[in-house]
Amino acid sequence: MAGESVGKQLRGWDAATFRTASSDPSMRSTFIAMAILENAPDWTRLRSRLERLSLFVPELRMRPLYGMVGLSAPRLSVDPDFDLDFHVRRYRLPEGGTWNDLLADARRISLTDFDQNRPLWEATLIEGLPDGHSAFLLKLHHSIADGQATVMIALTLFELSAEGNPDEPEAPPAPVGQDVTWQDLFVANTQDNLGRAIGAMRGAVNVGLGLIKGSVTDFNQTVHKTIETIGSVTRATSVYDRPLSPLLTERGTTYSFGTLEFPFEQIRRTAKSVGMSVNDAFMAAALTGVEAYHHRHGSSADSLRVNVPISLRGDAGDRSAQASNAVAIARFPIRVAGLGVQEIMGEAHELVSEWRREPAMRLADPLAEVSWFVPVPMLAQVARASDVTTSNVPGPPIPIYLAGTRMIAAYPLVATIGSAVNITMVTYDGHAFIGVSTDDRAIKDHPEFMHDLRAGFHAMTVLPDTL
User: Which helix (H) or strand (E) holds 76?
Assistant: First the structure.
């Protein structure tokens, strides 16, 4: 019974994310999925949907457990005092509330830390938006969900029609949590840590045997693969001391949100017209906007260092769970100065393709395990040396509903996590919805930055007409 009560230890990327977010406020790692609804959903029905979601996604009923000496990653264990009403709330904007008021509230929600002894999520329904709309905000800690996992969670929560889903599977019974003694926690962490150490040693032995065998059968190929992997890991773990932008140099502990919306077909058509992917076009538009912001301030960046999540979802292993991260971060410089949108698109295409092939991308979790022995200030310094984070998350192509009302927009609002700017796009029902977060010290004139970013997307979406 003790084995069940102590739950599972966070591993790899999830553990590293939790550790840095808990130790440095500039690395706060929250993700808000903001759904704009046609009108106010039925509250009782919405609460029931959230209850059901928490039964299908066990992490939403799990609290962190911490070892006494801090040498182990936290564990996630079913909270014996789980109370849905602690995580779910609703209120109404004051009369005359605007879109900016909603974003200000979303910002406050995002900047408010989780209770580190309860499940790491919360949901908020905000009514009183213009035109009778409402907003549903699902806030998650990045250690339990990446962007794609959030979409998968949403598909469990949302429905295909206002009347609901036909033939929905019955929810599993609620798990029962238990109090955990420090002795049980110590034993579980010791067993897991020993198991991981033994696993690492076995992995090292298998690698060594593989190298010996390969050296006998094909020496040249084995040496080439070994050198390639070492070089890839070196590139992936390079330590930078400052951003490449001469303008976006400061970092703080707060950020501001902005949103953009474009017809998805415009972006897709632009990408197709020049033989590129949607992600290439998205990155080119974002970086064109950032470079325009530099010009506004009489500055220029030869290159910008970008973070691009590389999805590992679909790889073999247990990472297919609904709530988990299955992602590696490619961090690389990309030329922008003097380049047009199409040229930046080509640069993005080549660089992202190269990084997808990097062996180190498949070693994200082992490398994150090693980061446990790196001081958090050093990890935060590396994160703050990035200028821009871009992420493109495909969403459902058809309308979906929540508790009887249609979702008309979906905006991803992600903490900057060290970079000056985070620009994330979610596609839904023929539209591209873009959430933007800007570090308040790096970008002190957020409205002007949003203007330049919008211009970057306009420049990209009219590209086919100029070919």
Answer: strand 75-78
DSSP 3-state assignment of 69?
coil
The answer to whether position 401 is within a domain reads: no
Half-sphere exposure of 162 (CA within 13 A, CB side): 9
Q: How would you classify the pairing of strands 388-394 and 421-428? A: parallel
What is the domain extent for residue 314?
Answer: 255-394+420-466
Cα 289 to Cα 438: distance, rounded to the nearest angstrom: 13
Q: Residues 155, 140: contact at Cβ < 8 Å?
A: no
For the beta sheet containing 401-402, the strands, ordered from the edge strand earlier in sequence to the opposite edge, are 88-92, 121-127, 134-141, 30-37, 405-414, 401-402
Number of domains in the chain: 1
Local structure of residue 33 (DSSP, 8 states): E
Residue 359 lies in a domain: yes
C-alpha to C-alpha distance for 129 and 40, rounded to whole angstroms: 10
Is residue 381 in some structural domain? yes
pLDDT band at 467 (very low <50, low <70, confident <90, very high): very low
Asked if residues 341 and 291 have their Cβ atoms less than 8 Å apart, the reply is no
Does a structural domain hold residue 329?
Answer: yes
What are the φ and ψ backbone dihedral angles of 391, each rounded to 5 degrees?
Answer: -145, 135
Detail the DSSP E strand segments found in 318-387.
Answer: 327-335
Per-residue pLDDT of 410-464, as tens digits, reads 999 999 999 999 999 999 999 999 999 999 999 999 999 999 999 999 999 886 4
CATH assignment at residue 432:
3.30.559.30
d(CA 355, CA 350): 9
- The secondary structure of 287-321 as a DSSP string is HHHHHHHHHHTT---SEEEEEEEEE-TTSSSSTTS
Gap between the terminal Cα atoms of the chain: 67
Q: Can you give the pTM of this predicted structure?
A: 0.87
For residue range 169-206, list pLDDT tens digits in order.
888 999 988 888 888 887 887 777 676 666 555 544 44
State the maximum Cα–Cα separation within the chain, in Å, rounded to a whole number: 77
